[in-house]
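Please decode residue identities from the backbone states below.
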């Protein structure tokens, strides 16, 4: 009886990985100089524009943390279509905050035409779920100069997905969460050959 080796494909789920455990990619001198120049040019605090789908409770939390939040009502844009809210946020240099999942539609709102925007799913809308969903804003708050355009964040209380477009035309899609106080990134599924 001949022994046959069968090569098959098995889906392997890679785990969530702590960002601290990933190998460090040291940026080039040119990249470091560009970041430093950009930091000096645009030393600023984050500014937000909340469309009319963004809950008042969430606005109160952000304002309680002393963030600059302009609402659609404040901007006299109540009842306007989504395109107008996006254009207003971009014109004012603000990050658009919404709960309207239509903004994640790449055909209707391609990254190249977007200001930075965050689409939230607050679960049942409790204060604790709102605060957990706001974890995704940490980098936006610390480095607002890098979140002025070409970024969409799909934020939920337990994780968020960040899609970005870069000046060279490339894009990225990363999935994050905070677990036991540490920032983690999801490493995509891979298909690896195994012997059966």
């Amino acid at each position: 009886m001949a022994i046959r080796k069968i090569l098959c494909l098995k889906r392997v789920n890679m785990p969530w990985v702590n960002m601290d455990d990933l190998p460090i990619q040291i940026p080039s001198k040119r990249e470091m100089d560009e970041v430093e120049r950009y930091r000096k040019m645009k030393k600023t605090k984050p500014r937000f524009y909340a469309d009319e789908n963004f809950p008042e409770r969430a606005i109160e939390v952000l304002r309680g943390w002393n963030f600059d939040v302009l609402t659609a009502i404040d901007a006299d844009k109540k009842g306007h279509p989504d395109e107008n809210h996006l254009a207003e946020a971009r014109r004012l240099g603000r990050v658009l905050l919404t709960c309207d999942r239509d903004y994640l539609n790449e055909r209707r709102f391609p990254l190249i035409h977007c200001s930075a925007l965050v689409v939230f799913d607050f679960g049942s809308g409790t204060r604790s779920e709102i605060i957990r969903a706001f974890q995704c804003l940490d980098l936006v708050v610390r480095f607002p100069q890098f979140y002025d355009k070409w970024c969409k964040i799909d934020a939920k209380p337990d994780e968020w997905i960040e899609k970005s477009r870069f000046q060279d035309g490339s894009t990225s899609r990363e999935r994050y969460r905070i677990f036991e106080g540490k920032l983690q990134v999801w490493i995509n599924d891979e298909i690896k050959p195994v012997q059966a």
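Observation: The longest helix spans residues 29-41.
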